[in-house]
Specification:
By secondary structure, the protein is an alpha/beta fold. It is about 35% helix and about 15% strand. Strand 10, helix 10 and strand 11 form a beta-alpha-beta unit. It is globular.
Length: about 375
């Protein structure tokens, strides 16, 4: 089985190695700010985010956009000593319901890296933490509509919300690629879709479609064989299983009790026998074209749906950028890309690799110099 390279792994070991090799900025340990700090966030709550944003305001920090970051990297124009960047990945619903009203009230800006293939239509935006009871009731039918379809996309912002965020100027909307996909990359079966797959994070569910439409393995596809997964923009060549293999396994589960099939002590061995099938690896040309399309379509779809021309920066999913992706980025026309590499400084400086910019976890924001400052070992808890 193909192993996942170290450069694509996170976790405690990676964090300790970055710490030991001086990748974390000095301000985390009581020093001054040198490189521009770029913080990243995912899902947020008001209780967690509000005091951190208030810390920025209380200590005189200003927030910058992707174009300002690009001017620093490419032209050497520094946005100022008190400048920081706030980036929100994936466009989770909390970017609209929590972050948007807080940023607006505190007169801060942020960057939102959105995934157009994960965004659903909706009649109207959802209520936010700033809405009163009447506002929430008036728009509750919109939430029920999304949930009623059983759509995981209700977890992310909707198109009306994203348009409002873009038009407000509070969020600088940029691309997180078209689908933020993981793909199979090895023919060895590693598991199957069981009832527990419902707990699998949305963004870890592998891509199944091979054409223009976007489809992922869903929890109701009980019995579907699973294989080693890596990011679409890694250097892993995609393995496409023969569709009849999954159909055979799903049919067996359906005929033998559905969910109850997995109560049988022999369920795994039964499916393992049925999962012996063929498949194919994509060619080098198919891989290069697929990666370029994934990058290009992310920005193109966002610009089209937002009526904009400003989406020209990208954050690569999980911070992963294989060599094929690195070659594709200049061709794609993107001005900058955020992509992690081991043993690189977590800050942005003039002259940095514009397609390998590094960020810092948002939990370290209160380590910036100021009143009420925390140090690394306090913030990391």
């Amino acid at each position: 089985m193909t192993a996942v390279p170290f450069a694509e792994r996170g976790g405690t070991v990676r964090g300790l190695l970055d710490l030991a090799t001086g990748c974390y900025p000095a301000f985390l340990f009581g020093g001054s700010v040198g490189a521009l700090p770029v913080f990243h966030f995912h899902e947020v709550t008001r209780a967690w985010l509000e005091p951190r944003l208030q810390y920025l305001v209380d200590n005189g920090y200003r927030t910058v956009t992707c174009d300002e970051i690009a001017r620093l990297v490419i032209d050497g124009v520094h946005p100022g000593r008190e400048a920081v960047a706030l980036t929100f990945d994936d466009a989770w619903a909390s970017a609209w319901t929590v972050a948007m009203p807080l940023l607006q009230r505190l007169k801060l800006r942020a960057i939102l890296f959105a995934i157009p293939a994960r965004i659903a239509e909706a009649p109207v935006p959802r209520p936010t933490i700033e809405d009163g009871v009447g506002g929430a009731a008036a728009r509750a039918d919109n939430i029920d509509n999304l949930r009623g379809h059983g759509s995981p996309f209700a977890t992310f912002v909707t198109w009306p919300e994203l348009r409002a965020m873009h038009e407000s100027g509070v969020f600088d909307v940029q691309s997180h690629t078209r689908s933020h996909a993981k793909v199979f990359c090895d023919p060895t079966v590693t598991g199957f879709v069981t009832p527990a797959f419902a707990n699998e994070p949305y963004l870890d569910r592998p891509l199944t479609s091979v054409k223009e439409s976007i489809h992922f393995v869903e929890p109701d596809a009980l019995g579907t064989p699973l294989y080693l997964r890596r990011s679409r923009v890694s250097d892993a060549r995609r393995f496409v299983p023969e569709p009849s293999t999954a159909e055979r396994c799903r049919g067996h589960v359906a005929r033998n009790g559905g969910v109850r099939f997995f109560d049988r002590p022999t369920w795994r061995s039964e499916l393992q026998r049925l999962a012996q099938g063929n498949g194919r690896f994509e060619s080098d040309g198919e891989q290069a074209a697929g990666i370029l399309n994934e990058i290009n379509e992310g920005s193109a779809l966002l610009n089209h749906r937002l009526g904009a021309t400003t989406v020209r920066h990208v954050a690569l999913p999980w911070g992963i950028a294989g060599d094929v992706t690195r070659r594709a980025l200049p061709e794609s026309g993107h001005v900058t890309a955020f992509a992690e590499r081991p043993f690189r400084h977590r800050g942005v400086r003039a002259g940095d690799d514009r397609y390998g910019l590094m960020r810092l976890n948002g939990k370290f924001l209160t380590c910036l110099p100021g009143r009420g400052r925390q140090w690394f070992f306090t913030a990391v808890r």
